[in-house]
Write a structure and sequence with these properties.
Elements (H helix, E strand, L loop, with lengths): L4 H7 L8 H14 L13 H4 L21 H4 L9 H10 L18 H8 L4 E4 L11 E9 L7 E8 L5 E9 L3 H17 L3 H13 L7 E3 L12 H18 L8 H22 L4 H12 L1 E10 L2 E7 L3 E7 L5 E5 L9 H9 L10 E2 L2 E2 L9 E2 L7 H9 L3 H4 L2 H4 L16 E6 L4 E7 L1 H4 L4 H13 L16 H16 L7 H11 L8 H9 L2 H7 L3 E8 L1 H14 L1
Antiparallel strand pairs: 1-2, 2-15, 3-4, 3-5, 4-6, 6-7, 6-12, 7-13, 8-9, 8-14, 10-11, 14-15
Helix pairs in contact: 7-9, 7-10, 7-11, 8-9, 10-11, 17-19
């Protein structure tokens, strides 16, 4: 198994910068255990190649991250690689048969079911909307979320909060790249910007008056967080000052009696926070830690998919390649998937046309190369990523005045190729509105790590069956695989046992995650495969999947139905 130089470059990230030997030794040890030919690795890398190592492996061109083909069965199948759907599909065609047999490579890593459950449930979280007088008067019954890392540390973040000064609930998934700093900042700050944008003029004035008088502020958000969803305390004063400047400007721009528009509020909040992230990095901070932190946030990046739910009104604001999909229950009891966000990447023709239209014709062939922005970045919309937004002169000036730690990161000093007319990247969200109906039962928001492993219709079917306890049995399909009558009988018995037994998961997001990681070629969870995928060492896990973050919001059809009736009576 030969490891080309470009393969090694893409295996490196900002969390594995100690030496090439970290990855090299890991891959060679796997080769030894599997009795494969030793990996040949270059002794040194050109500086221009090392510059990509801080970019995430899922967001950097990674068609060469596939395991050696002739030895693939030793590692187990790769149904969906997060790096490139096209590359994964091409590879699958070259591998007509798959084997899920226990291999000598990963045999020692087989986890027991309790160990698997412990890993899958470590980050699960559930919230049920409180009832009043024994009744749930909200269109949202509650939500369940979970995260499963592939990167170490995980680069995804999630947030959920109830707006206290207005109405409604906010839920969001943030997928970081080139580190977790930007996603972390979004998880702490974006909802405040949205909530402030939704406040009427008088409430904004009351907030400002309280700050001026030194009084305690009325809370704006009620957060619903897992203990692992932390806040960076050191940056709270900086974040508050930026937020206050924003609401001061809103006071000047609005008048008493103005009713904020939700669509406009979401749009302004996204754009303003991205602008503040950029300004904070340019200005810096006297505190050395904060100075380094704001630069890390700005030079890393993150996509965002946020839902705002207020009564029957559902707004989705999306920038990047996370997705929001609605689960709709049909009259026959089955569930259908309705997507309310578009991926902002090379597979989206309108996005490609938009980017090309924003730059001169001379850059038509270079602005998008190898299905990536400037040949490097997979999402076409994201927060941070000032490497794709600032001028070359501004980048150099900020870096020269930055802390020494920043100079050790080659990514920050790297100027993308064919960089002529910035900005190339925007955080402006695409906003979708939908009026909820009684048949709209739940919403799934997931980072791209979920959608790269399961089709949206499969996601909705799995969640719908979990929430209702009713299995919509489709004809058993085995694709192009050869199965014996004994294997077919086993599949049918497994289906029967699964339908008649209670679910072992108490969280819908955990249940969906189990399928995303453990599904075999027949669409059922294979414990052996699930165990292997969860026990892969850090050096290999990211080659097989991305971080997965899921939020599943369940709607209250009775409240939504009553809203429809009251609206009809008014009309």
């Amino acid at each position: 198994m030969q490891l080309k130089e470009k393969d090694l470059h893409l295996l490196l990230s900002d969390r594995c910068t100690s030496s090439i030997g970290v990855v090299t030794s890991a891959l060679q040890s796997v080769c030894v255990r599997a009795r494969l030919p030793a990996c040949r690795v270059p002794s040194a890398m050109p500086v221009t190649s090392q510059l990509l190592r801080a970019l995430p492996r899922s967001k950097v061109l990674a068609s060469s991250l596939l395991p050696c083909q002739q030895h693939q069965s030793q590692f187990g199948p790769v149904a969906h690689l997060p790096a490139s759907r096209k590359s994964a599909h091409m590879w699958q065609r070259r591998q007509p048969s798959r084997s899920y047999q226990t291999s000598s490579v990963l045999h020692s890593y087989i986890l027991t079911p309790p160990q698997v459950n412990s890993i899958l449930k470590a980050n699960e979280y559930s919230f049920k909307v409180p009832e009043f007088d024994g009744k749930n008067v909200s269109s949202v019954m509650g939500f369940e979320s979970n995260q499963l890392p592939a990167n170490a540390p995980i680069e995804d973040r999630r947030s959920a909060a109830t707006c206290l000064q207005t109405r409604g609930m906010l839920l969001g998934v943030f997928d970081g790249h080139a580190g977790c700093a930007c996603a972390q900042a979004l998880s702490e700050r974006l909802f405040y910007y949205i909530a402030v944008s939704l406040l009427p003029h008088n409430t904004l004035c009351e907030l400002e008056a309280a700050v001026e008088a030194g009084r305690a502020l009325s809370p704006i958000l009620q957060w619903h967080k897992h203990p692992n969803d932390y806040f960076s305390r050191e940056a709270q004063r900086l974040y508050f000052n930026s937020l206050r400047t924003y609401w001061q400007e809103l006071i000047d721009l609005t008048s008493p009696g103005d009713v904020p528009d939700t669509r406009e509020a979401l749009l302004n909040a996204f754009k303003r926070l991205d602008n503040d992230i950029s300004l904070e990095a340019q200005v810096g901070d006297p505190n050395a830690f904060l100075h380094y932190w704001v630069l890390r946030v700005a030079f890393s990046g993150a996509t965002a998919c946020v839902a705002h739910i207020d009564g029957p009104d559902l707004f989705i604001a999306n920038a990047g390649d996370a997705r929001a999909v609605l689960g709709v229950q049909e009259e026959d009891g089955s569930f259908s998937a309705h997507t309310f966000s578009n991926d902002h990447n090379a597979q989206n023709e309108s996005e490609v046309a938009r980017i090309r239209s924003e730059h001169p014709p001379s850059e038509r062939k270079t602005v998008i190369r190898q299905e990536r922005l400037l040949g490097l970045l997979m999402p076409f919309r994201a927060f941070g990523d000032v490497k794709f937004k600032w001028s070359i002169e501004l980048q150099k000036r900020v870096l020269e005045s930055g802390p020494d730690q920043l100079h050790e990161n080659e990514h920050t000093k790297f100027i993308p190729p064919n960089y002529h007319t910035p900005p190339y990247l925007t955080a402006e969200p695409e906003i979708t509105y939908h009026k909820l109906r009684p048949q709209d039962r739940f919403l799934v928001i997931g980072s791209d790590g979920l959608w790269e492993t399961l089709h949206r219709q499969e996601v909705i079917r799995i969640v719908g069956e979990y929430l209702t306890g009713v299995h919509q049995h489709q004809p058993l399909k085995v694709g192009g695989y050869r199965v014996t009558l004994g294997q077919m009988q086993g599949l049918l018995e497994e289906r029967k046992a699964r339908a008649s037994s209670a679910f072992e998961d108490q969280n819908a997001a955990t249940h969906l995650m189990r399928h995303a990681v453990g599904n075999n070629e027949f669409g059922t969870v294979d414990h052996e495969r699930l165990s292997k995928m969860l026990s892969l060492p850090e050096e290999l896990a990211r080659m097989y999947r991305d971080d997965i973050t899921i939020i599943i919001t369940q709607f209250n059809p009775h409240v939504i139905g009553s809203n429809d009736k009251s609206t009809s009576l008014k009309i």
